[in-house]
Every structure is written in C-alpha cells, then in structure tokens.
Amino acid sequence: MKDEGGRMKGSPVRVSFGREECVRRLSGFILRPSSFILALLLLTFTLNFTSSAQTRRRSGAHATAPETFTAADRTTVERAIGSACAERIRDPLGSTPIDVMQARPSMSLHHADAVAGAKRANRLLPITKKLVANEIVQLAKEYGMYSGLNRTRVNTAAARVQAVKQVRPNVDARDNASVLLRDPRAIEFGTIFLAGLRSDEAMISVLAHELTHVASGQTDSLRPLFRAIGRRAAARTGLRIQGQRAEELACDLVGVDATRAFIRQTASWDPLPRRLARAIEHNCVDDDSSDEDHLSPRNTIRALFSLDLDLARELLSNGNSQAFLKKPASLTVRTRAF
What does the pLDDT read at residue 149? Predict the structure, then answer.
C-alpha cells in the first residue's frame, strides 16, 4: 500500500549522512565502562517494568481469561430448565411451546385468542420500548462496550426502538414475529404466536427480542455486543454460537432482561419463579431442532441461563423474594357473608 507520496506505508525512511557526520554519530555510542553498566541497569529495569505492566493488564477485569464455569453451575442450569418447563404446565397462563404452535392450522385475524394477543402486544409495546433501550445500555456496560465512540453507537441504537409504533397481526406469519429493518414502524406478529403467548411476561420477552433487532438496524450497530455475548455463551455451553446465532441469542437475552425489569416494576400475586418462567417457556419443546441462524429452543434456554446464573437461581427459588414479589396495593380481599 502506498501513500500520497508513493512510499510504502510502514517502510523505513532512508537518510544519508556525510563522513564527518557519521563519525560524530558513531562516537556518541562509545560509552565509558561505568556509563555502560548504568545504561544496562536502566535497560533491565525498563524491560522488567514493561513485562510487569503487561502481566497486570492481562490479568485485569477486562482481560481475556479462561471461563470459570463449574460442574455445579451446569447442574444449576439444567435444574432451572426443568423447573421452567414444569412451571409452564402448571401455569394457567403458560405459553404454548413453539413446536406445538407449528403443528396448528392457521388462525384467523378475528379469532378471539389472536385478537386478545394483539391487544396485549400493543398495550405492552410502549413500556417494552423503554425497557429495551435501558437493557441494551446495561448490557453494553456489562460487556465493556460503553465508552468513547461505542457509547454513542449504543445510545443511538437504543433510541432507534422508538421507530416501532404498532404490532400488526399476520395470518401467514403463523408462529413467527418479524420486523422490516428499512422501515421498522410495525412488528409483524403471526396470529398463532399472538394466541400462544398468554401472559404479559411472555409477550414482553418476544417484543423485546424484535425491538433489539430494530436497535441494531441495517448498519448492525450492536454487532460487537452480539459477538461478545455469543463468545461468552459458547465458552460456557460448548455450543457453536457465531454470526446470526449470536444475534438471535443476544436478542433473547435482552428479552429476558426486559421481562425481569418488568417484573420488578409491576405488582402480581404470582410467585417469582412462575413469572420468570413465562419469559422463556415457549422454548420448552419436545421437537428440539435448530438451524444455521438459531440455536434449538432448549439450547436457547440453556445458553440464557448459562449467561445469567442469577436468573437460573431466581427461577429455582421458593418465590418469596421481596425484591421481586410486590402485592398489588389496589386489590382488596372480599369475603362472602354467610
């Protein structure tokens, strides 16, 4: 590669000197013994200092270090998966698994369950946009990507979710949801999917997933964050999580984090594990297949719990955490007179 002057970039610049100048420069390198020893000591000290500094940098908090994910951690993840999927069966508002949705016939726009799902989605869209914008920033901070130009890029991406104005039901989309990045004003939501997500928590999780795609946009603004999340998940699970798989998993992670934030902010009589399970239980499938762009549904749960062990532990809790359980103050208990 040449610069404007035609010189190869990175190549040495040659300069010629006259004889007297060469003698003068050579004489500058003839040191007395004492000076030579002093120079040698200074050089040794400098090399030791540099090596020590490099060692400290490598062992720092943001250094590349081996993942510490123990056998006990993996056991916690597997137990949490079992607990979440068992909760789905017990929960009156449990989501329909994706493989069951896929086997169902198309559902009319006017079907009562689809209409109810569309109303729920549009009601929750404004709060979900706020939650997603905040969670994207929090994840960028966690992964060391919220400084300098990265901070501007992340903030711009987070603000981009405001472009989405509605959820639009679509019969042909069936059990899927999608958004057109060049004109992200609406999330297309299959009627079967709208009907299958029967709780606010489940709906927020999926809405947040699609909004994260919008945040990254056509320019892939959040690709570095997606890659970092994919690398950590791959190191902890042994799964191949690159390219589009990393993006899809990161969108799921924002969805789960947004749902947890929603749970903290809203009152419910339902126990914490039940509400948390709703964020991921549509992945509790029997037919656990994958493709090039997505992990299998159960491996998606596995990767999410591996990325966030606190989530797994909260799901395994007894549901009495006061930090999450808020009783609705507006509710009154009525007793029947006999």
Answer: 86
C-alpha distances in angstroms, 74 versus 69, 237, 260? 7, 8, 22
What are the tens digits of pLDDT across the range 279-305? 999 999 999 999 999 999 999 999 999
The type of residue at 216 is S
In a domain, residue 282? The reply is: yes
Phi/psi for 2 (5° steps) reads: -115, 150
Strands laid side by side in the 177-179 sheet:
166-170, 186-190, 177-179
Q: How many domains does the chain have?
A: 1
Contact by Cβ (8 Å): 267, 274: no
Give residue 41's pLDDT: 47
pLDDT single digits (tens) 252-277: 999 999 999 999 999 999 999 999 99
- For residue 197, give Cα distances in angstroms to 101, 114, 137, 182, 297: 10, 10, 27, 27, 15
Tokens 């329909």 correspond to: 96
Is residue 208 within 8 A of residue 253, CB to CB? The reply is no
- Inter-axis angle of helices 71-90 and 297-307, nearest 10: 120
Domain contains 163: yes
Query: Region 115-133: what's the mean pLDDT?
Result: 97
Whether residue 166 lies inside any domain: the answer is yes
The answer as to whether 44 is a domain residue is no
Could you list the residue range(s) of the whole structural domain that residue 178 is in? 71-315
pLDDT in tens, 229-254: 999 999 999 999 999 999 999 999 99
Residue 144 in tokens: 């060391």
Cα distance between residue 157 and residue 133, in whole Å: 8
CA atoms within 13 A on the CB side of 266: 19
Name the average pLDDT for the chain: 81
* Structure tokens given for 155: 């903030």
Strand partners, 169: 189
